[in-house]
């Protein structure tokens, strides 16, 4: 064994990498396990400390949800609810819908909410086949309405206009 280590020391002093590897494999074949027994080690895909790759996910929230509560007074065009994707709140009386399902007031008045049974229009397979089989509590939806402000001021009769 002493002769092998002296021989290895001489080979390392030569510094030829390819030659060193072949000599090491020949002399230490009985010491080193075969390559099939060596298990690969898993490495982390992200650095643990701060890095340029770890900087994602710090985006502001979208500020979705209710903007006006039950009983609040609103003017024309004020946003009542911001929502994305499926409708969580449905438009009721004097409430309009924007492109991104935002609900807004179409008349000045007071906001109020109701839970009503939703009866979808039969325009696709779900509303024709699946919706009638759902239990009644699944078809209850929250609607947003505006109770219009009573008109105060000058009125003109139709004959006067």
Can you tell me about this structure?
The protein is α+β, with helices and mostly antiparallel strands and 161 residues long. The protein has 2 domains: 1-34, no CATH class; 65-148, OB fold (Dihydrolipoamide Acetyltransferase, E2P). It has helices at 2-14, 17-27, 125-130; strands spanning 65-66, 73-74, 79-82, 89-91, 95-97, 103-105, 109-117, 140-148. The strands form 2 sheets. Strands 1-3-6-5 form a 4-stranded antiparallel β-sheet, with no helix packed on it. Strand 5 (95-97) and strand 6 form a beta hairpin. Helix 1 packs antiparallel against helix 2 (17-27). The longest helix has 13 residues, at 2-14. It is elongated and about 115 Å long. The mean pLDDT is 79.
Helix content: 10-25%
Tally of distinct domains? 2
CATH topology annotation of the largest domain: OB fold (Dihydrolipoamide Acetyltransferase, E2P)
What's the total helix number?
A: 3
Q: Return the structural class.
A: alpha+beta
Q: What is shown here, in short?
A:
Helix content is 19%, strand content 22%.
Task: Give the topology, please.
Blueprint: H1 2-14, H2 17-27, E1 65-66, E2 73-74, E3 79-82, E4 89-91, E5 95-97, E6 103-105, E7 109-117, H3 125-130, E8 140-148
Helix pairs in contact: 1-2
Write a concise keyword list for the protein shown above.
OB fold (Dihydrolipoamide Acetyltransferase, E2P), four-stranded antiparallel beta sheet, four-stranded mixed beta sheet, 8 strands, single chain, alpha+beta, 3 helices, 161 residues
């Amino acid at each position: 064994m002493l002769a092998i280590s002296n021989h290895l020391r001489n080979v390392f002093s030569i510094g030829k990498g390819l030659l060193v590897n072949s000599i090491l494999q020949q002399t230490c074949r009985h010491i080193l396990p075969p390559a099939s027994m060596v298990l690969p080690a898993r490495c982390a895909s992200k650095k643990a400390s701060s890095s340029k790759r770890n900087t994602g996910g710090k985006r502001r929230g979208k500020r979705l949800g209710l903007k006006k509560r039950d009983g609040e007074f609103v003017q024309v065009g004020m946003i009542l609810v911001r929502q994305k994707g499926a409708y969580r709140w449905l438009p009721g009386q004097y409430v309009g819908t924007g492109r991104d399902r935002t609900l807004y007031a179409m008349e000045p008045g007071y906001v109020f909410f109701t839970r009503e049974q939703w009866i979808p229009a039969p325009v696709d397979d779900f509303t024709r086949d699946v919706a009638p089989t759902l239990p009644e509590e699944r078809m209850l939806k929250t609607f947003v309405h505006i109770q219009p402000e009573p008109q105060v001021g000058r009125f003109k009769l139709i004959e006067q206009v």
